[in-house]
Design goal:
With 152 residues, the protein is mainly α. The protein contains 5 helices and no strands.
Length: 152
């Protein structure tokens, strides 16, 4: 599963770089605004855009590493057979929900593909693109984790 480890590391680096871009652009903007009265007007939109990417890529990383918050009190008390059944059921529910989000966001991307951000020369659809990408990655990692759990 070196591919999964490599993909997870790549996604983590994308998150780190995105956070650094947000931090640096806002820092520079504060300096420009307070000392030179000449702020960049696009930093808010850039921060919001990158934050959406961070959320969905970060969710995929959390699924890959089984790091999502969970209430496992009852799950720990289940028999091994019932745990497997429960895990299959809730994984299928999550995958169906993610598929629904993917399809819905794809429709929004098509609708917004001609529109641009007000202060960035980028299509508005770029803000919705992380939804299907993140959902597809989460589905992939859910399936990989489910297979890995059943091989144990």
């Amino acid at each position: 599963m070196k591919i999964n480890v490599g993909l997870t590391k790549l996604l983590e680096w994308i998150i780190v770089v995105s956070m650094l871009v947000i931090l640096l652009s806002n820092f520079v903007n504060v300096i420009l605004r307070y000392f030179f009265s000449a702020p960049f007007y696009w930093t808010d939109e850039l921060s919001a855009l990158l934050f959406v990417w961070i959320i969905f890529i970060g969710s995929a990383v959390a699924v890959a590493t089984n790091s999502h918050a969970s209430l496992d009190y009852f799950f720990r008390k289940m028999t091994p057979q019932f745990k497997k059944i429960t895990k299959i059921v809730y994984t299928i529910i999550i995958i169906v929900t993610l598929l629904y989000l993917t399809i819905g966001s794809y429709n929004w991307i098509e609708v917004l593909s001609d529109q641009k951000y007000s202060s960035l020369p980028l299509p508005l659809a770029l803000g919705f693109l992380p939804i299907p990408i993140g959902c597809a990655l989460m589905i992939y990692f859910l399936i990989v984790n489910l297979i890995k759990d059943f091989k144990k």
